[in-house]
Amino acid sequence: MMVGIISGLVLLAVGLMLGYRFGRKHSETAGMAMSQDERERVLQMLQELGAWTNEYSGNVSQYQSRLGELSNEVRVDAQSTQSAPKVIALLKQIMDSNEQLQDRLESAERQLDKQTKQIESYLTEARTDALTGLHNRRAFDQKLDETFATFRKGGRSFALALVDIDHFKSFNDTHGHQVGDQVLQQVAKLLRLELDDAIMVARFGGEEFAIVMNGPLQIAADKMNKVRKTMASHQIDLGTKPLSVTISVGVSEPRDDLVASPVVRRADEALYAAKNIGRNRVYYHDGKSTSLVGAPEVAKG
After folding, report:
1. What sequence ranges are listed for the domain GGDEF (predicted)?
2. CB environment 98-110: b (16+ within 10 A), e (fewer)
3. Which residues, 6+ apart, have CB-to-CB distance to 119 below 8 Å?
4. Which residues are identified as catalytic?
5. Could you tell me if 9 and 108 lie in one domain?
6. pTM (2 decimals)?
Protein backbone atom coordinates (compact mmCIF):
# COMPACT_ATOMS: atom_id res chain seq x y z
CA MET A 1 0.00 0.00 0.00
CA MET A 2 2.80 2.38 0.94
CA VAL A 3 4.55 1.77 -2.37
CA GLY A 4 1.27 2.44 -4.18
CA ILE A 5 0.90 5.80 -2.44
CA ILE A 6 4.46 6.79 -3.32
CA SER A 7 4.03 5.67 -6.93
CA GLY A 8 0.83 7.69 -7.16
CA LEU A 9 2.59 10.80 -5.87
CA VAL A 10 5.44 10.28 -8.32
CA LEU A 11 2.94 9.98 -11.18
CA LEU A 12 1.21 13.14 -9.94
CA ALA A 13 4.51 15.01 -9.95
CA VAL A 14 5.35 13.73 -13.42
CA GLY A 15 1.90 14.76 -14.65
CA LEU A 16 2.30 18.24 -13.24
CA MET A 17 5.74 18.52 -14.77
CA LEU A 18 4.53 17.40 -18.18
CA GLY A 19 1.61 19.79 -17.89
CA TYR A 20 4.07 22.56 -17.19
CA ARG A 21 6.23 21.59 -20.18
CA PHE A 22 3.21 21.73 -22.46
CA GLY A 23 1.85 24.88 -20.91
CA ARG A 24 5.22 26.64 -21.04
CA LYS A 25 5.11 26.56 -24.83
CA HIS A 26 1.69 28.16 -24.90
CA SER A 27 1.72 30.35 -21.81
CA GLU A 28 1.98 33.60 -23.70
CA THR A 29 -1.16 32.96 -25.72
CA ALA A 30 -3.28 30.44 -23.88
CA GLY A 31 -2.23 30.86 -20.26
CA MET A 32 -2.06 27.08 -19.80
CA ALA A 33 1.16 26.93 -17.77
CA MET A 34 1.20 26.59 -14.03
CA SER A 35 1.90 29.81 -12.18
CA GLN A 36 5.32 30.37 -10.66
CA ASP A 37 3.90 29.79 -7.16
CA GLU A 38 2.31 26.52 -8.27
CA ARG A 39 5.53 25.25 -9.79
CA GLU A 40 7.48 26.16 -6.67
CA ARG A 41 4.92 24.36 -4.53
CA VAL A 42 5.35 21.26 -6.70
CA LEU A 43 9.11 21.51 -6.28
CA GLN A 44 8.75 21.87 -2.52
CA MET A 45 6.40 18.87 -2.43
CA LEU A 46 8.92 16.73 -4.30
CA GLN A 47 11.74 17.78 -2.01
CA GLU A 48 9.71 17.00 1.10
CA LEU A 49 8.51 13.70 -0.33
CA GLY A 50 12.05 12.78 -1.30
CA ALA A 51 13.24 13.48 2.25
CA TRP A 52 10.35 11.43 3.63
CA THR A 53 11.04 8.41 1.42
CA ASN A 54 14.71 8.61 2.35
CA GLU A 55 13.79 8.56 6.02
CA TYR A 56 11.25 5.77 5.52
CA SER A 57 13.78 3.73 3.55
CA GLY A 58 16.15 4.08 6.49
CA ASN A 59 13.43 2.89 8.84
CA VAL A 60 12.81 -0.14 6.62
CA SER A 61 16.54 -0.93 6.72
CA GLN A 62 16.46 -0.91 10.51
CA TYR A 63 13.37 -3.11 10.43
CA GLN A 64 15.14 -5.55 8.11
CA SER A 65 18.12 -5.70 10.45
CA ARG A 66 15.92 -6.38 13.46
CA LEU A 67 14.12 -9.18 11.64
CA GLY A 68 17.51 -10.71 10.86
CA GLU A 69 18.43 -10.64 14.53
CA LEU A 70 15.11 -12.25 15.41
CA SER A 71 15.70 -14.96 12.82
CA ASN A 72 19.09 -15.77 14.34
CA GLU A 73 17.58 -15.98 17.80
CA VAL A 74 14.97 -18.46 16.55
CA ARG A 75 17.66 -20.57 14.90
CA VAL A 76 19.44 -20.87 18.24
CA ASP A 77 16.27 -22.35 19.77
CA ALA A 78 15.55 -24.56 16.74
CA GLN A 79 16.80 -27.78 18.41
CA SER A 80 14.28 -27.49 21.26
CA THR A 81 11.34 -26.13 19.29
CA GLN A 82 9.62 -28.20 16.62
CA SER A 83 7.88 -25.14 15.16
CA ALA A 84 11.12 -23.25 14.68
CA PRO A 85 11.56 -24.24 10.99
CA LYS A 86 8.11 -22.87 10.18
CA VAL A 87 8.87 -19.70 12.09
CA ILE A 88 12.17 -19.33 10.28
CA ALA A 89 10.45 -19.83 6.92
CA LEU A 90 7.84 -17.25 7.82
CA LEU A 91 10.49 -14.78 8.91
CA LYS A 92 12.38 -15.34 5.67
CA GLN A 93 9.21 -14.65 3.70
CA ILE A 94 8.66 -11.45 5.66
CA MET A 95 12.28 -10.41 5.14
CA ASP A 96 12.07 -11.10 1.40
CA SER A 97 8.91 -8.98 1.13
CA ASN A 98 10.52 -6.28 3.20
CA GLU A 99 13.59 -6.31 0.94
CA GLN A 100 11.36 -5.90 -2.12
CA LEU A 101 9.62 -2.98 -0.42
CA GLN A 102 12.96 -1.38 0.34
CA ASP A 103 14.07 -1.77 -3.30
CA ARG A 104 10.85 -0.12 -4.48
CA LEU A 105 11.27 2.74 -2.02
CA GLU A 106 14.84 3.32 -3.15
CA SER A 107 13.68 3.27 -6.77
CA ALA A 108 10.94 5.77 -5.95
CA GLU A 109 13.50 7.94 -4.17
CA ARG A 110 15.77 7.95 -7.23
CA GLN A 111 12.82 8.83 -9.45
CA LEU A 112 11.78 11.66 -7.14
CA ASP A 113 15.32 13.03 -7.13
CA LYS A 114 15.36 12.94 -10.94
CA GLN A 115 12.01 14.73 -11.21
CA THR A 116 13.04 17.33 -8.62
CA LYS A 117 16.18 18.19 -10.58
CA GLN A 118 14.18 18.46 -13.79
CA ILE A 119 11.63 20.81 -12.24
CA GLU A 120 14.44 22.88 -10.70
CA SER A 121 15.90 23.18 -14.19
CA TYR A 122 12.54 24.22 -15.63
CA LEU A 123 12.06 26.81 -12.88
CA THR A 124 15.47 28.29 -13.66
CA GLU A 125 14.67 28.32 -17.37
CA ALA A 126 11.34 30.04 -16.70
CA ARG A 127 13.15 32.87 -14.90
CA THR A 128 16.05 33.36 -17.32
CA ASP A 129 16.31 35.26 -20.59
CA ALA A 130 17.72 32.78 -23.10
CA LEU A 131 19.73 35.32 -25.11
CA THR A 132 21.47 37.32 -22.38
CA GLY A 133 21.44 34.91 -19.44
CA LEU A 134 19.95 37.65 -17.24
CA HIS A 135 16.73 37.30 -15.28
CA ASN A 136 13.71 37.78 -17.52
CA ARG A 137 10.70 40.09 -17.19
CA ARG A 138 8.72 37.56 -15.16
CA ALA A 139 11.50 37.19 -12.60
CA PHE A 140 11.93 40.97 -12.50
CA ASP A 141 8.23 41.60 -11.84
CA GLN A 142 8.26 39.15 -8.95
CA LYS A 143 11.45 40.57 -7.42
CA LEU A 144 10.15 44.13 -7.75
CA ASP A 145 6.90 43.19 -5.99
CA GLU A 146 8.82 41.41 -3.22
CA THR A 147 11.23 44.31 -2.73
CA PHE A 148 8.40 46.83 -2.76
CA ALA A 149 6.39 44.78 -0.24
CA THR A 150 9.41 44.72 2.08
CA PHE A 151 9.76 48.48 1.71
CA ARG A 152 6.08 49.01 2.54
CA LYS A 153 6.53 46.98 5.73
CA GLY A 154 9.28 49.30 6.93
CA GLY A 155 12.24 47.82 5.09
CA ARG A 156 14.96 49.82 3.40
CA SER A 157 14.23 51.77 0.27
CA PHE A 158 15.53 50.84 -3.16
CA ALA A 159 15.95 52.33 -6.61
CA LEU A 160 14.79 51.16 -10.01
CA ALA A 161 16.80 51.89 -13.15
CA LEU A 162 15.52 51.35 -16.68
CA VAL A 163 18.22 51.15 -19.35
CA ASP A 164 17.70 51.49 -23.10
CA ILE A 165 20.35 50.90 -25.79
CA ASP A 166 20.57 54.01 -27.94
CA HIS A 167 19.80 53.66 -31.66
CA PHE A 168 19.48 49.90 -31.31
CA LYS A 169 17.32 49.61 -34.42
CA SER A 170 20.20 50.91 -36.51
CA PHE A 171 22.42 48.02 -35.37
CA ASN A 172 19.86 45.56 -36.69
CA ASP A 173 19.21 47.52 -39.88
CA THR A 174 22.88 48.12 -40.67
CA HIS A 175 24.58 44.98 -39.42
CA GLY A 176 21.78 42.42 -39.12
CA HIS A 177 19.92 40.83 -36.23
CA GLN A 178 22.83 38.57 -35.32
CA VAL A 179 24.96 41.62 -34.56
CA GLY A 180 22.01 43.10 -32.68
CA ASP A 181 21.87 39.98 -30.51
CA GLN A 182 25.60 40.25 -29.84
CA VAL A 183 25.17 43.87 -28.79
CA LEU A 184 22.43 42.81 -26.35
CA GLN A 185 24.68 40.10 -24.93
CA GLN A 186 27.65 42.44 -24.50
CA VAL A 187 25.56 45.16 -22.85
CA ALA A 188 24.05 42.56 -20.52
CA LYS A 189 27.53 41.31 -19.62
CA LEU A 190 28.78 44.81 -18.80
CA LEU A 191 25.70 45.59 -16.70
CA ARG A 192 26.16 42.36 -14.77
CA LEU A 193 29.83 43.12 -14.09
CA GLU A 194 29.39 46.78 -13.20
CA LEU A 195 26.31 46.16 -11.04
CA ASP A 196 27.35 42.97 -9.28
CA ASP A 197 25.94 44.28 -5.99
CA ALA A 198 22.50 45.04 -7.47
CA ILE A 199 19.44 43.26 -6.12
CA MET A 200 18.61 42.14 -9.66
CA VAL A 201 19.69 42.86 -13.22
CA ALA A 202 17.09 41.75 -15.77
CA ARG A 203 16.19 42.05 -19.39
CA PHE A 204 13.03 44.14 -19.39
CA GLY A 205 12.16 43.48 -23.01
CA GLY A 206 13.58 44.24 -26.46
CA GLU A 207 16.64 46.47 -25.99
CA GLU A 208 15.62 47.53 -22.47
CA PHE A 209 17.06 46.33 -19.17
CA ALA A 210 15.84 46.83 -15.61
CA ILE A 211 17.92 47.00 -12.45
CA VAL A 212 16.59 46.81 -8.90
CA MET A 213 19.32 48.30 -6.73
CA ASN A 214 19.93 49.74 -3.30
CA GLY A 215 19.12 53.39 -2.76
CA PRO A 216 19.02 56.19 -2.01
CA LEU A 217 17.95 57.68 -5.33
CA GLN A 218 20.82 60.11 -5.87
CA ILE A 219 23.50 57.54 -5.13
CA ALA A 220 21.83 55.02 -7.42
CA ALA A 221 21.57 57.64 -10.18
CA ASP A 222 25.26 58.56 -9.81
CA LYS A 223 26.21 54.90 -10.02
CA MET A 224 24.17 54.43 -13.18
CA ASN A 225 25.90 57.48 -14.66
CA LYS A 226 29.26 55.81 -14.04
CA VAL A 227 27.95 52.71 -15.80
CA ARG A 228 26.79 54.91 -18.69
CA LYS A 229 30.26 56.46 -19.01
CA THR A 230 31.90 53.02 -18.91
CA MET A 231 29.58 51.84 -21.66
CA ALA A 232 30.27 54.89 -23.82
CA SER A 233 34.04 54.39 -23.55
CA HIS A 234 33.83 50.66 -24.20
CA GLN A 235 33.94 49.31 -27.75
CA ILE A 236 32.20 46.04 -28.46
CA ASP A 237 34.42 43.69 -30.45
CA LEU A 238 32.28 41.60 -32.78
CA GLY A 239 35.16 40.05 -34.71
CA THR A 240 34.94 42.60 -37.51
CA LYS A 241 34.70 46.30 -36.83
CA PRO A 242 34.37 47.35 -33.15
CA LEU A 243 31.10 49.12 -32.36
CA SER A 244 30.51 51.95 -29.92
CA VAL A 245 27.32 51.61 -27.91
CA THR A 246 25.69 54.13 -25.60
CA ILE A 247 22.76 53.81 -23.21
CA SER A 248 20.09 56.06 -21.80
CA VAL A 249 18.92 55.54 -18.23
CA GLY A 250 15.95 56.52 -16.09
CA VAL A 251 16.03 56.07 -12.30
CA SER A 252 13.31 56.33 -9.67
CA GLU A 253 12.54 55.17 -6.14
CA PRO A 254 9.35 54.38 -4.19
CA ARG A 255 7.55 57.23 -2.50
CA ASP A 256 4.12 57.08 -0.86
CA ASP A 257 3.02 54.51 -3.40
CA LEU A 258 0.54 51.77 -2.61
CA VAL A 259 1.79 49.52 -5.42
CA ALA A 260 5.03 49.18 -7.36
CA SER A 261 3.73 50.29 -10.76
CA PRO A 262 4.20 54.07 -10.13
CA VAL A 263 7.89 53.38 -9.45
CA VAL A 264 8.18 51.83 -12.90
CA ARG A 265 6.20 54.66 -14.48
CA ARG A 266 8.47 57.34 -12.99
CA ALA A 267 11.60 55.48 -14.09
CA ASP A 268 10.11 55.23 -17.57
CA GLU A 269 9.37 58.98 -17.59
CA ALA A 270 12.98 59.66 -16.58
CA LEU A 271 14.21 57.32 -19.34
CA TYR A 272 12.01 59.11 -21.87
CA ALA A 273 13.51 62.43 -20.79
CA ALA A 274 17.04 61.05 -21.23
CA LYS A 275 16.26 59.82 -24.76
CA ASN A 276 14.22 62.86 -25.75
CA ILE A 277 16.90 65.35 -24.64
CA GLY A 278 19.68 63.66 -26.60
CA ARG A 279 20.39 60.10 -25.32
CA ASN A 280 23.58 58.85 -23.66
CA ARG A 281 22.64 60.33 -20.32
CA VAL A 282 20.94 59.53 -17.02
CA TYR A 283 17.82 61.19 -15.64
CA TYR A 284 16.19 60.50 -12.31
CA HIS A 285 12.63 61.15 -11.10
CA ASP A 286 12.29 62.38 -7.52
CA GLY A 287 8.51 62.01 -7.45
CA LYS A 288 7.89 65.53 -8.73
CA SER A 289 9.98 65.99 -11.85
CA THR A 290 12.89 64.56 -13.82
CA SER A 291 16.45 65.85 -13.45
CA LEU A 292 19.66 65.24 -15.37
CA VAL A 293 22.57 63.61 -13.56
CA GLY A 294 25.68 65.74 -14.18
CA ALA A 295 26.07 68.75 -16.44
CA PRO A 296 24.86 68.39 -20.06
CA GLU A 297 28.37 68.77 -21.46
CA VAL A 298 29.56 65.95 -19.18
CA ALA A 299 26.59 63.74 -19.98
CA LYS A 300 27.45 63.83 -23.69
CA GLY A 301 30.87 62.27 -23.07
Report:
1. 156-287
2. eeebbebbeebbe
3. 13, 17, 20, 39, 42, 43, 46
4. 207
5. yes
6. 0.64
- Claim to verify: residue 150 and residue 273 sit in the same structural domain: yes
Q: Give the CA-trace dihedral at 5, 8, 9, 10, to 10 degrees.
A: 120
Virtual CA dihedral for 33, 36, 38, 41, nearest 10 degrees? 140
Looking at the fold, whether 10 and 146 belong to one and the same domain comes out as no
Q: Could you tell me which of 152, 285, 298, 141 has the C-alpha nearest to residue 210? A: 141
Per-residue pLDDT at 77: 57
For residues 181 and 115, state if they share a domain: no
Q: Is 18 exposed, middle or buried (0-12, 13-18, 19+ CB in 10 A)?
A: exposed
Residue 268 within any structural domain of the chain: yes
For the stretch 57-87, pLDDT in tens is 666 666 666 666 666 665 665 555 565 666 6
Helix (H) or strand (E) holding 205: strand 200-205
Residue of 139, 142, 147, 141 lying closest to 254 (CA atoms):
147
CA distance 52 to 106: 11
Residue 132 lies in a domain: no
Nearest residue to 248 via CA among 284, 286, 275, 219: 275
User: Is residue 157 assigned to a domain?
Assistant: yes
Name the domain count of the chain: 2
Mean residue pLDDT across the chain = 78
Give the DSSP H/E element, type plus range, for residue 267.
helix 261-277
The residue type found at 197 is D
50 and 158: one domain? no
Rounded-to-integer distance, Cα 177 and Cα 171, Å: 8
Domain assignment present for residue 131? The answer is: no
**Same domain, yes or no, for 292 and 250?**
yes
Q: Domain of residue 44: give its range.
A: 2-126
